[in-house]
Amino acid sequence: MNIAVAGGTGWVGRLVVEQARARGHEVVVISRSTGVDLTTGEGLDDALRGVDVVVDVTNVETLSRKASVAFFETTTRTLLAAEERAGVRHHVVLSIVGVDRVDSGYYEGKRRQERLALDGPIPATVLRATQFHEFAAQLLDRVPGPVKLVPAMLSRPVAASEVAAELVRLAEGPARGLATDLAGPEVLEVPAMVRRLARRGLVLSVPAGRAMAHGGLLPEGDFHRGEITFDEWLAAR
User: Fold this and answer.
1) Domain with 231 in it: what CATH number?
2) Beta-carbon neighbour count of residue 32 at 10 Å?
3) Is 154 helix (H, G, I), strand (E, B) or coil?
4) Rounded CA separation 116/106 (Å)
5) Which residue range is the domain that position 7 belongs to?
6) Alpha-helical runs (H) found in 54-189
7) Is 71 exposed, middle or buried (0-12, 13-18, 19+ CB in 10 A)?
8) What's the structural domain count of the chain?
9) CA distances from 157 to 34, 82, 150, 204 (A)
């Protein structure tokens, strides 16, 4: 199978590329560094020639509702139009558990991305996953200085490698619409995760909104359970 990974040079994208190649698939990496611009469509038609499935793990780091919606709407519309021209059979999107229950600027963009994919011209699968173990490290790195302000939220963190493997598994099968959520093996408080990583300084919890603080980002009902715990991830790191 020929799989294209949009955002394939990013942190999660690289894992998806590795997993897909390990399973014997041909992989096309879609990113600006490989000559493809998803905001303009430059290079996209050539990149998708002969592709069977597109896995979209593109991302933008912003808290702005306007910026998030603009990015995900533009890139998703551009991708879907090019996929239709190329005869792509399946469009797979990585999203977030609880994105439909928690209101934030960034999540509005992800919700728009989901709707466009599921209502679009290409049969689609959306995988919602919880925060990765690496999320704690990202929060730590983003806040300069000895005092770290971390949102008081509950998470069921999952290994990014397990998310990548599930994306490839879904790409190998038929479109499923909204797939079963993927979450980690344990519920943890995000500030506690960051404290485990911080070697110095003070980690303080700050309000993150009632939904996040009371489990809005945890799966409801059935979900696939990852196996790698935060402690195991820390030990390997």
Assistant:
1) 3.40.50.720
2) 12
3) strand
4) 16
5) 2-236
6) 65-86, 105-118, 134-142, 160-172
7) buried
8) 1
9) 31, 34, 16, 20
Count of C-beta atoms within a 10 Å radius of residue 105: 14
Instruction: Provide the token pair at 49.
Output: 């020639």
Q: How far is CA 154 from CA 178, 186, 188, 202, in A?
A: 23, 10, 6, 20
* Token pair of 54 as six digits: 């597109």
Instruction: Give pTM, 2 decimals.
Output: 0.93
pLDDT in tens, 27-64: 999 999 999 999 999 999 999 999 999 999 999 988 89
Q: Where are the alpha helices (DSSP H) in the chain?
A: 11-22, 44-47, 65-86, 105-118, 134-142, 160-172, 190-197, 210-213, 230-236
pLDDT tens for each residue of 203-213? 777 777 777 77
Residue in this structure with the two tokens 């963190």, named with its chain if needed:
157
CB 72 within 8 A of CB 109: yes
